[in-house]
Structures are given as structure tokens and as C-alpha cells.
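Appendix C: a fully annotated inverse folding record. The material below is reproduced so that readers can follow the format used throughout the book. The structure is listed first as C-alpha cells, followed by the designed sequence.
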């Protein structure tokens, strides 16, 4: 199955638009995991196993692994998801962006080394910097559009002519010219529901990865109402810290499951 097909199946099977972000910070791990050489893998594996039936996808953020020389644990984690929870797609959150020859290597890293089903990428170097990812037709390419951080407005809200904002130009460009294989999605932050609605209007039913609920304060109701597709899906609403660190002791995975279930159900109330 392609990334989009797997995502659509997970939306239906798990009745979920929740994306569980995997941003492991060992300083926040329960005491019984601290100091272990495999602590990052064990922490994330426990979260994954506790929430797999509540999520439409998982999104490990590569920096949290690479900064601690834990790329081998990231490989093991993605392999675990593929074997133990087949059908739940994995998005490698890397936000890569570089010239074509370098992008080719980043694509190999994401799709062949790690075995991810999709990768986040930066579109601001243009189509040739994205084409190496698009060459993997069964994989997803999720492009930054209107990000959740306050500084995103510095560039993304610039008028590029005729009253069109840069993020709107990106949304239309991806939907109309770059998505020939039907594999693209866009990142639009939950902190900007009006822009989510605008991107949805510009892109039809293209999937949207929406960070910013939970710790970043995005409103679930506003996010879902602005971004849902005509079928009541079309979203991967990411929550990371609120789920990962819901518990502080050996029962942390149970606490994560409880918060994930509450978040999924809150999202579903507004579909």
C-alpha cells in the first residue's frame, strides 16, 4: 500500500485522526529507564504499543534521536512499528531541504535506511529539491506550508503579489503541480485555524499534518472544523509532549494511552 492508502485505512480502522509524535527527551523519562543504553527505544516502543490502536500514524522527530547518537534506536523503533503494528504509517519528521543531489541522499536515508512511509520536507528551494522524494511514488512527501511557530509569519505570510500570501502560493503549487503521483501532504499549524481553512479550500482533500495542539495550545475544535475534508477525515493532528509525558513513573505508557484516547475522542467529537 502507498502512504496515502495506509493513512486512509488507518483513519477508518482506528477511527482516528490523531498522529502521535515521538520526541524522546531522556531528561523527562521515568527513573527506571534513565541510564539505560536502549532507553530511547524502550520509552518510544512502550508509547507506540500503548497507543497504536488509537492513532492514524506515528511521527518520530529525527533530531531527538540524532542528538543523542540514537539513530540505531530510531531504525529499531520503525522496524518494530512495521512488524508489530502493520498498517500504521510512520512519518519521519526531518524537514529536509537541499539541492537535488543532496536531497537524493536524504531520500535514501528516510525511505531506505529508516524505512519511513513519509518524510517532512522544506519546499523553499523549489521543485528540484523535492523531486528525489517524489521519485519514491509509494511514499508520502509532507511539505511545510503554514507552520505552528510564531516566527512562521516572518516569511510564510508575505504577500507575493495580488494579495496572495506565500503559504497560499505553496499550497496551490504543491496541489496543482507537484502532486502528480497523489503522494503529497502539507504541514499547517493548529495555531492558525483560519489558515488551515484557507489551505483546505486551495487543496481539496489533500491530507494535512497539523502540529500545535496540546503543549502548543492549538484548539481542537477550531482545527478539526477548519481542516476536515468532505469525508470528515483528511487530517493528521499531532500531539507529542502531552501524550509522551503524561505519566512520570513506571506506568507512563498507561498514562500516555489515557491521554491519547482522550485526544482522539475530543477530535472525533468535531468531525
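Designed amino acids, in order:
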Amino acid at each position: 500500500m502507498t502512504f496515502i492508502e495506509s493513512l486512509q485505512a488507518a483513519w477508518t480502522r482506528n477511527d482516528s485522526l490523531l498522529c502521535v509524535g515521538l520526541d524522546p527527551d531522556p531528561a523527562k523519562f521515568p527513573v527506571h529507564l534513565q541510564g539505560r543504553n536502549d532507553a530511547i527505544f524502550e520509552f518510544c516502543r512502550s508509547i507506540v504499543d500503548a497507543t497504536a490502536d488509537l492513532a492514524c500514524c506515528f511521527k518520530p522527530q529525527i533530531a531527538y534521536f540524532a542528538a543523542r547518537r540514537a539513530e540505531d534506536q530510531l531504525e529499531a523503533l520503525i522496524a518494530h512499528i512495521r512488524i508489530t503494528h502493520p498498517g500504521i504509517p510512520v512519518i519521519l519528521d526531518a524537514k529536509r531541504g537541499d539541492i537535488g543531489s543532496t536531497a537524493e541522499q536524504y531520500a535514501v536515508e528516510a525511505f531506505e535506511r529508516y524505512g519511513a512511509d513519509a518524510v517532512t520536507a522544506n519546499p523553499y528551494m523549489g521543485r528540484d529539491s523535492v523531486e528525489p522524494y517524489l521519485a519514491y511514488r509509494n511514499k508520502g512527501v509532507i511539505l511545510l506550508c503554514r507552520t505552528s511557530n510564531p516566527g512562521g509569519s516572518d516569511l510564510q505570510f508575505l504577500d507575493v503579489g495580488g494579495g496572495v500570501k506565500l503559504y497560499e502560493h505553496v499550497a496551490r503549487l504543491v496541489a496543482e503541480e507537484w502532486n502528480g503521483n497523489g503522494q503529497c501532504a502539507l504541514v499547517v499549524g493548529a495555531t492558525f485555524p483560519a489558515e488551515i481553512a484557507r489551505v483546505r479550500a486551495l487543496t481539496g482533500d489533500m491530507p494535512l499534518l497539523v502540529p500545535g495542539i496540546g503543549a502548543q495550545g492549538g484548539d481542537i475544535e477550531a482545527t478539526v472544523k477548519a481542516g476536515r475534508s468532505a469525508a470528515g477525515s483528511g487530517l493528521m493532528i499531532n500531539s507529542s509532549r502531552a501524550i509522551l509525558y503524561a505519566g512520570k513513573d513506571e506506568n507512563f505508557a498507561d498514562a500516555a494511552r489515557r491521554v491519547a484516547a482522550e485526544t482522539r475522542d475530543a477530535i472525533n467529537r468535531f468531525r
